[in-house]
Amino acid sequence: MMYLQVAAGLVILLICGELLVRGAVALAEQFGISKLIIGFTIVAFGTSAPELVVCINAALEGAPGIAFGNVVGSNIANVLLVLGVPALIYPLACDNQSAMRDSIIMIGGSILFAILAWTGFIGFWQGAILVAALAFVIFLAYRRAKETGEDSADDALEEYEENMPKSKWMSFLFIFIGLIGLVAGSRLLVDGAVMIATAAGVSEEIIGLTLVALGTSLPELATSLIAAFRRHGDVAIGNVLGSNLFNITGIIGATAIIKPMEAPSQILHFDLNIMLLTSASLIFIFWTRKPVGRVLGAVFCIAYLAYISAQFLGMSGVHSVAMMS
Question: Which of 30, 101, 256, 300 would bridge with 122, disulfide CB 3.0–4.6 Å?
């Protein structure tokens, strides 16, 4: 029942998150809002809604390990798995200059998050700093996109426009169902994850870093796989860089504003360093100006499997030592 509860929570989150985005995009277009604004606000925030609701719910229920584990674990999964698996299908090529710029911004946000987390506590003001940093980056990106045209916004909304509700009342219904479903799904997922951790004798942090993080990264993986099949490597890479930046600034920042949290020492002493290392590896990859090919994709996938295995086979002891320190 615990695993069924987690699976049901993930399914509800994925479906209702999609309903929320489609309803909000449709409503915004029906009110004549610019596609560029929709792309940089509703789509960007809406696609991260499942992770945000899960983190807030975990923090409110006294499980900060799941909240932090979800964010850090998702960022690790995004680089190693969400880039690795599509690269096995087709090499991911992109505009290296833009990718380098965006990866530097993402790593800058990661370092800011790490510095704040290493203090051992993420409270209101730390959360506000992270959210302000994200808002500043979005403003710069919006201004740059406005100067170069709205083609990127058209591409981003193309998928949602195929199956959007056609009337305002139906759009409101999509949004309402999406919001209710996100709350219900996140509660199922968090409660089930806590029960699994208790029954298996592992920490909530490990469950957050693995099961919860992998589940909430499934939409990014699906998007990147579709992009790989369509030979749109830039979409897959941009999806990962944008998602990681949102995770460590917007999601953990908004969660901390609502419910201040202690940063779990287990994650600070090991997993946060892995996240920074995997994120920094992208700088070297884009610097070589070569696509993310099948060999590198295989290396990424193997590295992720090794990381997951370490959590359950060997890292329980390391996490225990980290807790005592």
Answer: 256
